[in-house]
Amino acid sequence: MTSIEIRGVWLTTTDSQVLRSQENIVEAMNFLASSGFNAVFPVVWNKAVTLFPSKTMQQNFGLEIDPLSLGRDPLQEVVDAAHSVGLKVIPWFEYGFASSYNLNGGMLLAKKPEWSARDRTGKLLNKNGFEWMNALNPEVQKFLSNMVLEVVQNYDVDGIQGDDRFPALPCEGGYDSMTVERYVKKFGKNPPENPQDKQWLQWRANILTEFWAGLYKNVKAVNPNLLVSVSPNIYDWTFKEYLQDTPAWLQQGIVDIIHPQIYRRDLASYKSVVDRLLKEQFAGKELAKLAPGILIKVGSYRIATDYLVRTIEYNRKCGISGEILFFYEGLRDNNNELGKVLRNSCYRKSAIFPSLSDLSRATSKNNTPSFWQKIFNLFN
Hints:
Elements: E1 3-4, E2 6-11, H1 22-34, E3 39-42, E4 45-46, E5 49-50, H2 55-61, H3 74-84, E6 88-89, E7 98-101, H4 106-111, E8 126-127, E9 130-132, H5 138-154, E10 159-163, H6 177-187, H7 198-222, E11 227-231, H8 237-242, H9 246-252, E12 257-258, H10 267-280, E13 293-295, E14 297-298, E15 301-302, H11 305-317, E16 322-326, H12 329-343, E17 351-352, H13 356-359, H14 371-378
Parallel strand pairs: 1-17, 2-3, 2-16, 3-6, 10-11, 11-12, 13-16
Antiparallel strand pairs: 4-5, 7-9, 8-9, 14-15
Helix pairs in contact: 1-3, 2-5, 5-7, 10-11
């Protein structure tokens, strides 16, 4: 009996040429399918450009697509090539509400400065080099929503994905005049100067949750079978730093799969985070929605083959049926070493990508495998 697992990988335009030609895309999809993967998460929004022709971008900024992709539609090319070899396609809106990286807001905020997020000194919100649009501004929210809806309406995708910037806003934001006025109207006083004041954090986080709930509903209205996935950082750090209230998202049922970025470089640290998440967030029926993000390559770092295999094995031991790897090029280093290791070990037998009903299945509080999970394990 074939198991049900998420075996995904992120496709980027940073340090990768996969999305830069149709030929590269076809070759990559064939490689992934032959290596045991069943899903790809291609970036479609980063650095103030889209990887598909976007009317939303054309109308707002006069730039329909990434200039490096003129005359092409990389997203359509991924959909065609991936589906032809049985891979699911879930487009990834990487930059989310971030406008630019070390560009003082870049093209987006040069044209629409009123969309800028502000810190308590009134400066453009910058955190770790990223400059931000105001994720609490209804116009900015509509802009991102329209972009997402363009994708699900015009492409045969299997879902959409947010991340640690979508929906998100650094906790230092929210001090723009519009948000301050909104806060004063509700509470009769100015927002706290401490950006991590508990009530101030929760109020802003609730606005983002409400936005995501609306987007979730609109995506499902287009096609109820589309999967809505998010890859935030780890709770509760991501709540305190980026206003991402992931427990509320799970409780409200506005995320189908959640991929916490457990980017740890040793097994003990990885296990520690997983154990805490299972205890605090993903007990019971929510376990089926968990498929962690695993870092396999960034800069000069590349994960050791043994560590990757043991990480995936630990996921399965804990009842976690899947993961997403960051990012594709890590599989191809050293003559496809990681791809070969996975094909010959954890991903040797094929696995079916879960349906919505699979992701909604109940699991007992102590993470003991269900009857059907035991049957799956018996035959695999």
